[in-house]
Amino acid sequence: MAAARVLVSGAGIAGTTLAFWLAAKGFEPVVVERAPALRPGGYKIDVRGAALPVVERMGVMAAVREARTDMQEAFIVDAKGRTAAAMDADAFGGRVHGDAEIHRGALAGLIHGLTADTVEYRFGDSIATLEQDEDGVDVVFESGRSERFDLVAGADGLHSRTRRAAFGPEDDSIVDLGYGVASCTVPNTLGLDRCEMTYVGTGRTALVYNTAGSSDATALFLWAAAGLGDERRDREGKVRVLRDAYAGEGWKVPELLDAAGDAEDLYLDPLAQVRIDRWSQGRVVLLGDAAHAASAASGQGTSLALVGAYVLAGELGRGGGHARAFAAYEERMRPFAETNQALALRNVKSMVMRSDAQVRLGIGFLKLASRLPGKDRLMAPVVKAVHRAATAIELPDYEA
């Protein structure tokens, strides 16, 4: 296995991390990415719990902390823009024990930089078909190129092409949680400085934030949605879906919708999880969101990707064949992934209030939590639940 060629589909956090660890263990990873270049920007994400030692062992922890978002405060506002609650940004985000918050694009760039000169990256291409036998996998790419690999790892996200090619239709693996999520870059018209403002309406939440070193802001929309149809697949459809979902909403939401309509990086999708019985089929294996997306509501997608890539490469490096390695990887990772999927299901209920009464009670609690002495203790159960999920795995030392 030491000389095996491994095709890694996807140059996100999971794919680039896997490439790093595979190369370190003597494998020959080739990373193919549908986008024309590494994806910049993106929402702010957390590196938490078990993911922290993975980043340490990769040698980029200092750089991650240097690129931190440095968020200072979080505010909850009402329809007239009045502050209903305020608290420390780390407490609001459930960050403890050295957790690091960074932009997704910044982290992806750091990890890619570790292997940019030693691993082959093919941008602007993707897997079209897979056909495997006992000795390898024949891959046909969208570009028309054909090639044979020893193994294929699908790290290509929620709508994984690798999963569809090797495991079957997408509808058999994706569970829609009943919410829509959208994000984009917007002008910082509120003059925010390393803080975020959240507006909670009935069945729909909107927030905007600014991070260290950025002149712009980022808007996030999360709303109750029975299902998002095919209209979300093109830009005009995304804008229409978003405007319909937030029609008549207060605060700065109309301005944010106008900015979203002009944004070049508008992302919109159902809030969903991936749940499948097996993460491998023969010589093809899945990791990250492609295997076990927990959704943005978990706050754990990046950490799951980092840990999963480390474990998969570590098990392959132990030898004994890919079948043994894939089984050991899934046995160790599945309980961790399922714990964080369950966390997301609990979190989203407090992120989107489905009735006027829930909105009043939720804001009332946050108002109390932000003004009483010992307010950090009131948030302790939330922080504890996040930390428990983030550390729900015993991380092996594959170098020992």
TrEMBL record:
Signal peptide: none annotated. Residues 5-339 form the FAD-binding domain. GO terms for molecular function: FAD binding. Transmembrane segments: none annotated. InterPro entries: FAD-bd, FAD/NAD-bd_sf, FAD_aromatic-hydroxylase. Coiled coil: none annotated. It holds the Pfam family FAD_binding_3. It comes from the Bacteria. This is 2-polyprenyl-6-methoxyphenol hydroxylase. It comes from Glycomyces sambucus. The lineage of its organism: Bacteria, Bacillati, Actinomycetota, Actinomycetes, Glycomycetales.
